[in-house]
Specification:
alpha/beta; four-stranded mixed beta sheet
Amino acid sequence: MPRSERHGILTAGTWCVDTNKMVEFWPKEDGLAEILSEESRGGGSACNLAIDIRRLDPTIPVETIGLIGDDEDGRLLHAEADRHGIDRRRLVMTKQARTLHTDAYCSKDTGRRTHIFNMGAGALLTPDHFDFSGTKARILHLGLPGVHKRMDGPWEGDVNGWVTVLRKAREVGLVTNLELATVAPGRLAELVRPMLPFLDLIIVNDAEIGSIGDEVTVSDHNTDVAACIRAARKAMEAGRANLVAVHFPAGAIAVTREGDVVSQASVGVPQSEVAGANGAGDAFAAGFVYGFHEGWGLKQSLALAHAAAAASLRSMTTCDAVESWQVCLALAETWGWRNAPA
């Protein structure tokens, strides 16, 4: 099917169950912290973006591909997909391992998150699970390198299975995009750089683009925006992407192959509204992907990306606080925008 006739989003890769735990603070080794609340919900890049897109606009068709265990957690994920109207026919179960699961801790003190995961069925995911025949989606959102053992290794002549999947996706006419996990910078670069020739879009954070582009983009928790722009251009020069979007606490930039740079400040979320940052990066990606899919301008897409991320901060879970794109933008206008990133 030609790209011009495609419509909708296909998410693929990581589906897991997050046991979200709010703690007083994140303790040092041998320390002690109280769990204030906890609940189990869907998580992972394929799950989060699929749900976020449907919450932003329930009229957009969303399909998904993944491998989960034939267990209680797997059934929870199928129920999550059904509740949000996601086509899960290719979210298959295996009896060989339990569902990938994560203890997702959020510090009440700082709002920061820490994830500790068991790869489970995620270790068994291979390119053979990615069947793109019959999909009518326009954009593929793929993730997460570093979290799937067999995908991270060589596959049938390719340096890793992610390259194989992206190659297959481009052959059938999908626009390709990649979600990243917080892994060691050297490992991230090793996994992602071979994928650059097969990516149309790159939506990452400041540290991730630094790893990909071999630039120091974050120092003492401060973002060097100029370094992010240099790294984004390096990523495009090494591949085929036409657009790189980079987000960071103060804002975001979008860099085009033509050399244009568009910036947008983030939302000034009141601290009293922040429950946790888990899923905020996925919400940003969902907002940007939605704008791109709908043909919005870069400035408008970045604004929605920030608005969706800001809305998501109101919940300890990844997706529950994301609302329609109209509500997210209205909320952002109510809270106001920070100063433009320099």
